[in-house]
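Morning, I've got a small favour to ask if you have a moment. It would help a lot if you went through both lines with me. I owe you a coffee for this, so here goes:
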Amino acid sequence: MEKKILITGASGEIGQAIAKDLAKAGHSLVLHYHKNQTDMDRLTKQIPADQCLQVIQADLSTPEGLQQFLSVCPPDIDYYIHTSGQSVVGLFQDMPDQQMDELLHLHIKAPWRITQHLIPSMIRQQSGRIVVISSIWGEVGASCEVAYSTVKGAQNTFVKALAKELGPSQIYVNGVSPGLIDTKMNQHLDQQERDALIEEIALQRIGLPEDVARAVCFLCEEQTRYIQGELIKVDGGW
C-alpha cells in the first residue's frame, strides 16, 4: 500500500538512491535537502510529479534551520527516513565548539525533534516506520572521526530505545549501519587508502548507495513486521 514518506538528506547519494527505490515501489515522498539544489532538482525530475509531494530546504544542523523545517513539515507522515549526515575528519583535540554543536544538532537533536513532530499521527494510526541511517563507526569507533563516531553511537541507542517505547503502538524503529560507501563523504581517501580498506572487506569492493537503499526499502516492506530495534549492517563483511 502506498505510504507518505519523509526523507531527510535526500540530495545526498544515499538519500537519492533511497528516494528512487521508494518511488519505484509506488510511495509518495516529502524530500528534504540542505545545500545540493542541483542534485535535488535532478532527483525530482526522475520521480513522477504526483509522487513528489513536497521539497523542503533547511539546515538541520542549526536550531533555526530545524525550526524552519518543522514549521513546514507535514505531521501526517507514515514513514520517516533520516539520512542527513555530516562527517568531520581530524584530530578530536583540534575540533572547535561550532563543529561539535553542528554534529550534535544534525545527528541527534534533529531526529529527536522530527520524530516528536511525527509520533502523534503515527500513534493515532497505530502504524508507522522510522529508519535511521547510522554508521559502523557508531559501533566500533574511528580514529580522527571521534565526534562523528560518538553521534552515530547515540543514534544507535536512540533506535534501540525508541523501538521499545513505540513498539506497543505498532511503530517500527530500525537503523541501517553502512560501512565504506562510495559517496562524497569518503572522497578524502586517496587511492592507496581506498585499496587498503578494500583488502579488509570480505566482498573486496566499496559499497554503493544502492546497497544501502535496498536495506532501507527492505525495512519499509509490509512483510517485515517482526523486525524491531535492529541495526542492519551494510558493510560487505568489513
User: Anything to note?
Assistant: The longest strand covers residues 171-178. Helices lie at 13-24, 37-45, 63-72, 97-125, 137-140, 146-166, 191-200, 209-219. The CA atoms of residues 26 and 123 lie 24 Å apart.
